[in-house]
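does this look right to u?? uracil version
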Amino acid sequence: MAMLRLDKLLADEGVASRKDLREMIRAGRVTVDGAVERPLDGERVGYRRFHYYMMDKPVGVVTATEDKRQQTVLDLLPPDLKRMGLFPVGRLDKDTSGLLLLTDDGEFAHRVISPKSCVKKRYYAEVEGEADEQDALAFSRGILLRDGTQCLPAELTLLGGGKCAVTVMEGKYHQVRRMLASRGKPVLALRRVSIGGLRLPDDLGAGGVRELTEEDLCTLFKA
Ligand code: URA
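got this back:
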């Protein structure tokens, strides 16, 4: 049978450092109550093999696990989450805000990102000028970027007032900005509002983070 050290398991959960946990265990402050739930200093810790979070990524922060000069999305996490080995699922540009997933589950990340999974990523864009029906048609046929890269068919919804919504199923470098630029509509502001069926809540706040529920995870992979 596979054995997992209790100090490692709880450290992976972000409860405390392994050193502190070993001291707490030695001091008899940790009790094991059944196979799934473990009370620790009065706090209940549900064990999950992998971890899944959403963040409302602010503008000005890079989507990376580390960077020598710039603030990263991991820098925004509270200390207990920083210890978990989370990484961003795909990336949002420094100048793009909105829904970013963080996990330690590589297979999950691949499933969300891969165009084969057909998980839709929806963005609100503010552009210079006004996107029109011709642009929407071009998006539905698949935009050919200026460097010759062919994009998959995507959806462009006209919202008026220089605003539009773009839905894509792939994540090429600066894709939405380049798609709109190729139609002569440079992006002024870009925000991701949903991934699959999972919407960014209005009240998370810039830099806010919360764990995904089981329901969120199901919603995510619903069309
Ligand atoms: N497309 C972009 O251009 N930028 C992003 O951050 C995401 C999609």
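The longest helix spans residues 18-26. idk if thats expected tbh
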